[in-house]
Amino acid sequence: MTADLADPAVSAAVREVRRTVAELHAALLSNGLVAWTSGNVSARVPGAELLVIKPSGISYADLTAESMVVCDLDGARVSGEFAPSSDTLSHAYIYRHMPHVGGVVHTHSRYATAWAARGEPIPCVLTAMADEFGGEIPVGPFAPIGGSEIGRAVVATLAGHRSPAVLLRSHGVFTIGKHARDAVKAAVMCEDVACTVHLAASRGELTPLPQDQIDALYRRYQNEYGQRLPAATAEGPEENGILVRCHPEIHDLDYRTKWSYRSHYRVTV
Description:
Layout: H1 8-30, E1 40-44, E2 50-53, E3 69-72, E4 77-79, H2 88-97, E5 103-107, H3 110-118, H4 127-133, E6 139-140, H5 149-158, E7 165-168, E8 172-177, H6 180-201, H7 211-223, E9 234-239, E10 242-246, H8 259-262, E11 266-268
Parallel strand pairs: 6-7
Antiparallel strand pairs: 1-2, 1-5, 2-3, 3-4, 5-8, 7-8, 9-10, 10-11
């Protein structure tokens, strides 16, 4: 697929991603991860060298699918009424250098950002951390806002880590995922464990889990936890010119509201 918005397949994919990204910004707000206009979600457009990201400085209450900005993977605006987020060049850098990443989230969530302000990684002292992050949540260097430097710091810090989250010193949280919804989940869970570990640390010294236990927990959660859906798929309704395919036992569900199932849908054009 090309990056030509005149191509009907590209245009249909962009409409779907715009809708998804707009909805996911509401999840940042409802989970208490952002204040005022801070924070952003972006998503890669499947099959195209494009990303969709939040516009800069627009209130969350005013965000719509149409207000989301389409950029190429160099961070240049391709479509949209508004200027894109000031973090766009860094999101674009991440997509260029981490081809497995389909979504990026940035927040200044309270507890995780407190760890970033201290320049400390969050130690892996909880089974939930081993499950989700496969170890500690690392801290990266300070990087200036507006260019690709933050993206460089994210990519460099996460190299060799299983964690989908990184704390950037004196700034906040960046998370990645195979899909944008996965990156949002990582941001939610990062704040959750940041709060719990902070409260535990206030009571005394913490003891990280042994590495073999971390590895075992991570393998179990990544490979066994939850519903193991069969490979067979059934065709669902066509929406905005996009045929939605889903697993047969869940194809009647309203997939927009099913957090656990949304990532199992795939778009066919």
